[in-house]
Write a structure and sequence with these properties.
The complex is a heterodimer of chains A (405) and B (81). Chain A has helices at residues 6-19, 60-63, 105-120, 147-159, 177-190, 215-223, 240-244, 252-259, 263-301, 304-347, 349-354, and strands at 26-37, 43-48, 53-58, 74-85, 90-103, 137-142, 164-169, 196-201, 228-232, 247-249, 359-361, 379-384, 387-392. Chain A has 405 residues and is α/β, with parallel strands linked by helices. Chain A has 4 domains: 6-103, OB fold (Dihydrolipoamide Acetyltransferase, E2P) (Beta Barrel); 108-261, Succinyl-CoA synthetase domains (Rossmann fold, 3-Layer(aba) Sandwich), CATH 3.40.50.261; 264-302; 350-401, no CATH class. In chain A, helix 4 packs parallel to helix 8 (252-259). The longest helix of chain A is centred in the last third of the chain and has 44 residues, at 304-347. Chain A is rod-shaped and about 210 Å long. In chain B, helix 1 packs antiparallel against helix 2. Chain B has one domain (1-81). Chain B is 53% helix and 14% strand. A two-stranded antiparallel sheet of chain B has the order 1-2. With 81 residues, chain B is α+β, with helices and mostly antiparallel strands. Chain B starts with 7 loop residues before the first helix and ends in a 5-residue tail after the last helix. Chain B contains 3 helices and 2 strands; from the N terminus they run H-H-E-E-H. Classes of the chains: A alpha/beta (405), B alpha+beta (81). Chains A and B meet through helix 4, strand 7 and helix 9 of A and helix 1, helix 2 and strand 1 of B. Strand 7 of chain A pairs parallel with strand 1 of chain B, so a sheet runs across the interface.
């Protein structure tokens, strides 16, 4: 028998399946799981019950007509046909209509546990521990091989490389995952060197995340002494662990962002503080310097040498003033004495005699200035420039007795 | 107190105290110098805390008896992370 090609086999299977009356128009009841809305608008998900699952696709033209919110855990009835995706060899349910059947059991259990723990106060903000601003060592409980741990490490390394990391590798899904995570949390919590614990995993269906919806895990997180950040799944995935943790991060990367500060911005802040310190100190020093300069000027002003020089100057000034005053006085005296000399000159009798005048003295030597001083017979002396004459007054004629006067 | 024993937060707090101390006027130059010196030391300490060598990454591996051993990821698993 001739071997068939893969595409021939798939094509043959497709033909058989699509020609089946039942499979070409079928309603399937199950719980929505792994629900994904592709950017093209097509919906991909699984339907499942306790024993099995079937892959489903709902193309955009049908998906657009769905008027309810589809979430994992929902019980739905999907109507469509079974066919084969030939390239992959998968058979799937091609859904044309979907309607709600009621919430899934897992979802109901989740809601019940959440309500119960909430009533007990496990989510109460007053019990939330503070996240240390700069942890020295962070303990992480998650899968050692998942994307979550890689994301957390790379973000911590980028933001705050000095931080130490201790990983407790644990299962994050399956029946033993919750117990494993609990053990890791307790171990890290008991260590002195750990400041903060992160636990979580990447996104998944409600079944895949179920370890983080475990009641014992929730109670363990609540009982820990150290602060815990939960980082389960994507932004839209909420687990019980998220509610009970001290801080819920939407993704593992976000948990790392919340756990450590950004070194770069801290350094910037630190440097600006240092500049502030420097500025304040410089101001103080400059202020002291100004005070010192003032004192220096005062000292200089009071320098005895300077004062002496100042005094000498003053003496010089005084001397100059004295000198000029004296000189002025002298000049005045000189001028005065000159005047006197001239006056004396004018008064000098010798000078008069030189001009031919004569001076008449009485017997006693007194100066005769008027005829009234003389009488007939008086003896007189007449002084001329070149000698004396003794004479007797022959007659005294008063002015008016002379002819003409 | 010995600066090397201060946490980052404590050091920052003291640095800020010194800064506001230097902002007022009523102190001597000697005080200012002492405070400034301490401020510089605090700054260095903080800077060192931020920039010190990269932290270690270790993974806890346990055997059947739950005896755990710390393995240095950076050394043991070359360049995986």
């Amino acid at each position: 028998m001739k071997a068939l090609r893969v595409s021939e086999v798939n094509s043959y299977i497709k033909k058989i399946l699509t020609s089946d009356m039942l499979l070409s128009n079928i309603e399937v009841e199950g719980e929505l799981s792994n629900f994904k809305r592709h950017y093209s608008g097509h919906l991909y998900f699984s339907l499942k019950d306790e024993k099995a699952r079937i892959k489903c696709v709902m193309f955009r033209s049908y998906a657009d007509k769905v008027d309810m919110e589809l979430v994992d855990g929902q019980k739905v009835i999907a109507k469509g046909y079974i066919s084969v995706y030939e390239q992959g060899g998968d058979y799937q349910l091609y859904v044309m209509e979907i309607k709600e059947k009621g919430l899934g059991d897992l979802y109901i259990a989740f809601e019940e546990l959440k309500r119960k723990l909430e009533r007990e106060g496990l989510f109460d903000p007053q019990y939330k521990k503070e996240i240390p601003p700069m942890p020295k060592k962070i303990g992480i409980v998650t899968s050692a091989t998942g994307a979550a741990i890689r994301d957390i490490i790379s973000v911590i390394r980028r933001r705050f490389p000095a931080c130490n990391i201790l990983i407790y590798p644990s299962l994050v899904q399956g029946p033993n995952a919750a117990r494993d995570i609990i053990e890791g949390l307790k171990l890290l919590d008991s260590r002195e060197d750990i400041d903060l614990i992160i636990t979580g995993r990447g996104g998944g269906s409600i079944e895949e995340l179920s370890a983080f919806n475990d009641e014992d895990l929730a109670r363990t997180i609540f009982s820990l002494n150290k602060p815990v950040i939960s980082a389960v799944g994507h932004e839209t995935d909420f687990t019980i662990a998220d509610f009970v943790a001290d801080l819920r991060a939407p993704t593992p990367s976000a948990a790392a962002e919340m756990a450590v500060p950004n070194m770069e911005s801290l350094i910037q802040l630190l440097d600006s503080r240092f500049n502030h310190l420097l500025l304040n100190y410089e101001n103080k020093v400059q202020m002291e310097m100004r005070g010192l300069n003032l004192l220096k000027r005062g000292l200089k002003y009071n320098n005895p040498v300077y004062k002496l020089r100042n005094n000498r100057q003053q003496v010089d000034l005084l001397y100059k003033e004295l000198k000029s005053k004296m000189e002025r006085k002298l000049d005045l005296y000189k001028k005065y004495s000159g005047d006197l000399e001239n006056k004396l000159k004018l008064l000098n009798p010798t000078l008069a005699l030189e001009k031919g005048n004569a001076i008449i003295l009485n017997e006693a030597g007194g100066l005769i200035k008027s005829v009234k001083d003389l009488a007939q017979g008086d003896s007189i002396e007449i002084l001329m420039q070149d000698g004396r004459i003794r004479a007797l007054v022959k007659d005294v004629l008063k002015g008016e007795e002379e002819d003409g006067y | 107190m010995d600066i090397s024993k201060l946490s980052y937060e404590e050091a920052i707090e003291e640095l800020e105290e010194i800064i506001s101390f230097l902002e007022q006027d009523d102190y001597s130059l000697k005080e200012a110098m002492d405070k400034f010196k301490r401020g510089v030391e605090l700054y260095k300490h903080c800077h060192q805390l931020l920039c010190k060598a990269e932290g270690e990454i270790k993974i806890l591996l346990g055997d059947e008896e739950k005896d755990f051993e710390e393995l240095d990821l950076l050394r043991e698993v070359d360049g995986e992370y």
